[in-house]
């Protein structure tokens, strides 16, 4: 391999997913020269194998379910979805796994793209092994940002490689619906993909080792999603582990810890993520290869002042929107330090990713949707807050009854009794994903309960649940 180029930039970014793109955008906007390195497609996991394709698969499934709950439409949607049309819709939203448009965007903001595998090679130095076999060296005057994301982790079951199991990538990019699909894992990926493929014609068996689905949310979230999946025809089994998996004459055979034998056409393992840091040269700067990278609130790696770790790699919140938020913080911090200006480190300042600790929002696009922000009741209690949880049946809100016949849902607001502010909110029900930003504003803004009384929800919308929660808090 020959070295053909050596270039100097203010900032070098490893990884051109949404996080890396946003770091590059912010540093370029600050006038810093920036290079970005990508070994796969510009746009990253979110654009091609996660957020965009999964939601493109789920939206028709959820719309179909909503239509069946709507008078005047029910008789028009009794048949199955057109799976081929849904998959074509998914392909449109992934740009058919081509990144031309995203490359053009990088060019438009003045970021130089290097295709190939990037590795740290000592302080502020990155080598790129290109597809053409050439080795390029990039040197950063001010910062290197590691934005390489995470990958799916498969369990250590004997012979699993021969089974060719699905991970989230295969689940979101499959060319047809398997007749029978086993999904292992009850987190977000497992719940969403069980919803999608059951709705697209697969017979889904969902195996969950724990007590229920969506374990990081309030318990009722997983309960309502599991109930709906069961009603849709899925076989949901909790407290169940996989003992062995084989593929016999094309059929996947799963044996559970209870001795049950399940046959399927494909099996998806949605059982965790690991950082993509195993082969990026961390050892050349005194860090452990393959590790999650610790950061302080400006996303700077401790004791390595020129190195930033942004997005999944720091394990703060494995969510695209949270990674993009971190990217904006990191870009501003890099620009401030490059200008010789001390970063603003106080909470909620321009250079502090405070929301990572206090107000991480998430929507799970199942049917029903589950959305949360801030602390659950259990998390608030473990943190030592004196709190009260207020629950309300979303189905009794006027707007919910108009949204769908037989609307099922629930809301919870966790209130800090010392300061009378909202620490966390969870909504579960059809369409609640669009409610969560109001809760995020309340949590981030630490809006006093007394002030929230004057934020009047429009009638008749599902947002009226805010009034009902406040009334329940006042009267309890």
From TrEMBL:
In its keyword annotation, does this UniProt entry include Nucleotide-binding?
A: yes
Sorted keywords for this record are: FAD, Flavoprotein, NAD, Nucleotide-binding
GO MF terms, alphabetically ordered: dihydrolipoyl dehydrogenase (NADH) activity; flavin adenine dinucleotide binding
Locate the Pyridine nucleotide-disulphide oxidoreductase dimerisation domain: which residues?
Answer: 360-466
Cofactor(s) the record lists? FAD
Give the GO biological process terms: 2-oxoglutarate metabolic process
Question: Which cysteines in this chain are paired by disulphide bridges?
Answer: 46-51
Residues where NAD(+) binds: 185-192, 272
For this protein, the record's Pfam families field holds:
Pyr_redox_2 (PF07992), Pyr_redox_dim (PF02852)
Q: List ligand-binding residues for FAD.
A: 55, 118, 148-150, 312
Domain named FAD/NAD(P)-binding is located at: 9-322
KW NAD (keyword) present: yes
Could you give the cofactor binding note from the entry? Binds 1 FAD per subunit.
- Homology family: Belongs to the class-I pyridine nucleotide-disulfide oxidoreductase family.
Q: Can you say what this protein is called? A: Oxidoreductase
Q: Which organism is it from?
A: Streptomyces ruber
């Amino acid at each position: 391999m020959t070295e053909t180029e050596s270039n100097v930039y203010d900032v070098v970014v490893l990884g051109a997913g949404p996080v890396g793109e946003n770091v590059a955008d912010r540093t370029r906007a600050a006038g810093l020269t920036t290079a970005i390195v990508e070994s796969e497609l510009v746009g990253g996991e979110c654009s091609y194998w996660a957020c965009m394709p999964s939601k493109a698969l789920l939206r028709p499934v959820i719309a179909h379910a909503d239509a069946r709950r709507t008078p005047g439409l029910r008789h028009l949607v009794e048949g199955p979805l057109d799976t081929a049309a849904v998959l074509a819709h998914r392909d449109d939203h992934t740009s058919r796994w081509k990144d031309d448009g995203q490359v053009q965007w990088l060019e438009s903001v003045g970021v130089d793209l290097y295709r190939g595998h990037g590795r740290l090679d000592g302080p502020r130095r990155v080598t790129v092994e290109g597809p053409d076999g050439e080795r390029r060296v990039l040197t950063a005057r001010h910062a290197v940002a590691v934005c390489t994301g995470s990958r799916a982790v498969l369990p250590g079951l004997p012979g699993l490689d021969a089974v060719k199991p699905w991970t989230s990538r295969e689940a979101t990019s499959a060319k047809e619906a398997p007749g029978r699909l086993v999904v292992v894992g009850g987190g977000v990926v497992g719940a969403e993909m069980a919803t999608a493929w059951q709705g697209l014609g697969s017979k889904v068996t969902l195996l969950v080792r724990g007590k229920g689905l969506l374990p990081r949310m309030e318990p009722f979230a997983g309960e309502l999603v599991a109930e709906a999946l069961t009603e849709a025809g899925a076989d949901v089994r909790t407290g169940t582990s996989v003992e062995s998996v084989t593929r016999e004459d094309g059929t996947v055979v799963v044996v559970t810890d209870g001795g049950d034998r399940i046959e399927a056409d494909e099996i998806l393992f949605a059982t965790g993520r690991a950082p993509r840091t195993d082969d990026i040269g961390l050892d050349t700067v005194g860090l452990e290869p393959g590790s999650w990278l610790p950061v302080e609130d400006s996303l700077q790696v401790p004791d390595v002042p020129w190195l930033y770790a942004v997005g999944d790699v720091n394990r703060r919140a494995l969510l695209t929107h949270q990674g993009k938020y971190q990217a904006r913080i990191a870009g501003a911090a890099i620009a401030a330090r490059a200008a010789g200006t001390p970063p603003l480190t106080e909470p909620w300042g321009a250079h502090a990713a405070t929301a990572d600790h206090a107000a991480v929002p998430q929507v799970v696009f199942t049917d029903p949707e589950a959305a949360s922000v801030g602390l659950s009741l259990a998390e608030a209690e473990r943190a030592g807050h004196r709190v009260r949880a207020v629950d309300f049946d979303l189905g009794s809100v006027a707007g919910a009854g108009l949204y769908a016949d037989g609307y099922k849902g629930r809301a919870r607001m966790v209130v800090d009794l010392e300061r009378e502010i909202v620490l966390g909110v969870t909504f579960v029900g059809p369409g609640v994903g669009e409610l969560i930003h109001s809760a995020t504003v309340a949590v981030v803004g630490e809006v006093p309960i007394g002030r929230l009384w004057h934020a009047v929800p429009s009638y008749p919308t599902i947002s009226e649940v805010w009034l009902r929660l406040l009334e329940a808090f006042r009267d309890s």
